[in-house]
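Blinded run. Sample ID left blank on purpose so nobody reads anything into the name before looking at the predicted structure. Input follows.
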Amino acid sequence: MKKVLVATAIVGALAAPQAFAQANDFVGFNVGVNVNLASSSAETSTGALSAHIGDTSQNVSLQGAYAFAVGGRGVLGLGLSYSLTSLKSGSLVVAGTDVEWRNNDLFSAYMEPGIVVDNATLLYAKIAYVGGKGERISNGLIGSQNYYGIGCGAGARVLLSKHLYLQGEFMRSDYGERPIDGMPYKPSSTIGSIGFGFKF
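Blinded prediction complete.
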């Protein structure tokens, strides 16, 4: 029994620095670019008409973050992201006129608690403060309103080398309701993304 305890202590002593070294592989500044596939939707109404609209679209986003080591295998990332193009949110015929909605200038400020599971893989959860500009397009005219909300999701980051990584992520975002040109608008989105990045 004594030998087992001694052996366990030795293994633990050897494993702890190795686990910390693995976490350190993900520590520091990183930047990346992501290709996103989004299912965006919104609730809107005008007069007696109430509707749930939606659409799917793609866009590209940039991210920048700094990650800290937390314990042996823990990593905490703090970062920002910004979408370079808009996402469609749906369309509707209102009083004989085609009306389209889209979400533009999307951004997030996020926190990513994660755990290193092997030499090159980090699994993480994401909690984000999200924002953007909702736009309503009708007869060539664009009305807009700023929206803010909360996003949550999860992802995985895999190191390809000391500095390069691949990333896959899923995130759900819900925004508060505000009117555009007098029409209530409450957007939400579910986004799956694949990214490529560089760690300094």
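Unblinding after everyone has recorded impressions. The first strand starts at residue 28 and ends at 46.
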